[in-house]
Amino acid sequence: MMNFNFIASNDFDLNNFKNIESFVSFYSDFQTIILNNEKELYLLLKHIGIEKLDSFELKSVEFEKYWNLSEFHLPEYNQEEFESFYKKWIEISGREDNMDEFGNLMFLQGMSSKWNKMTYKLIVKEQ
After folding, report:
1. 77 Cβ partners below 8 Å, 6+ apart?
2. How far apart are CA 108 and CA 114, in angstroms?
3. What is the pTM assigned to this prediction?
């Protein structure tokens, strides 16, 4: 299992990825999604409308790499749209339908509108 942290901010500094403490203090509303591998991450991104995205290596003990989503608009789902998105996600990913999985993605309903107003949106993969 791999942890992918979704973050948004008006400032972006690679020094914030040197350790967990600076990461958490700078990106306090980060959302962690737990997936089996990067292939699932790319499947999720495609499902929310992001087709092509390059990763960038990080020289950090805590974090391996990041993806910059800043040029993309995250979907802003209402409850009904999120439930439809989630059902389709379970279908295309083959992941287990449970509360952990549902909770994993719920930030797309609650955080996207706030995050879309910020300058930077990133995904950071933990080591």
Report:
1. 85, 108, 109, 112
2. 10
3. 0.94
* DSSP assignments along 33-74, one per residue: EEESSHHHHHHHHHHTT-----EEE---SSEEEEEE-TTSPP
What counts of helices (H) and strands (E) characterise the chain?
6, 5
Rounded to whole angstroms, the Cα distance separating 24 from 16 reads 9
**pLDDT tens digits for range 56-77:** 999 899 999 999 999 999 999 9
Q: Are 39 and 92 in contact (CB under 8 A)?
A: no
CA distances from 55 to 6, 76, 105 (A): 14, 24, 21
Name the 3-class secondary structure at 19.
Answer: coil
Q: Which residue has the tokens 């955080």?
A: 111
Backbone angles phi, psi at 125, to 5 degrees: -90, 130
